[in-house]
């Protein structure tokens, strides 16, 4: 992509956005760009292969989705009671383990050990969007300020420890979550590092990889073992997710959570990241509705239809995993 072409596309998209007059869309757009308008427009352009018309439609669709689903208020909707939220944190494994040397937040995700079995789909979607919004409205602006330059993306380390054939049961929920990200939080991840890879992942990756867009493929790096040595090239030891700390350390949420070592395990509700996030949401809810008691119940968000590319990937994955089931003669 030549500089001239991208500059031209950017100017055209900016001109189209300058024509938006609807107050609600302009207000939510501020929550999206957080002062980094150029970087935000570039993300949407990249996601639509530099097609200005498609990028503009994507932004407007995203802003409408935000307004219709009151996404701007989601950080004032705590999931309560705390024990119930702890169950969500123990079954939807994600956390902030630190920062890369360039200042990018490092998110750790326990793909293989996330069971998603403690709450309804709506709670998991709500929790996922809250982490996205907290990242975009609190973590990234604070990292930008610290480094004196716009930091608008993050790094994700995906731990495949414990990945089983029963992952098939979670494909629907994972598709909803990743479709929300594709359509409304495009190009927020700089690189996906995949670690602790079992055979089942390698086999599925071979089939899925050719279906991914070149842009996405380039972002995925499958690392040997727990990925420690490779990751230490871009971050300090203190920022490594706990499952990358030593070869063969695995990622047992039970041993980590159960020994009072919550500060090490960035998935745990006791980890400083989750404590700050949860306190932030509770504080926001007090500001918004100081008199009303906090209501229990999930914050419902409309689920998008998965994009065609994603639907094809899911179909391929399902058929691949079914083949495994048949050849192994087992359900797990």
From TrEMBL:
Signal peptide: none annotated. Residues 81-241 form the CRAL-TRIO domain. SMART domains: CRAL_TRIO_N, SEC14. This is CRAL-TRIO domain-containing protein.
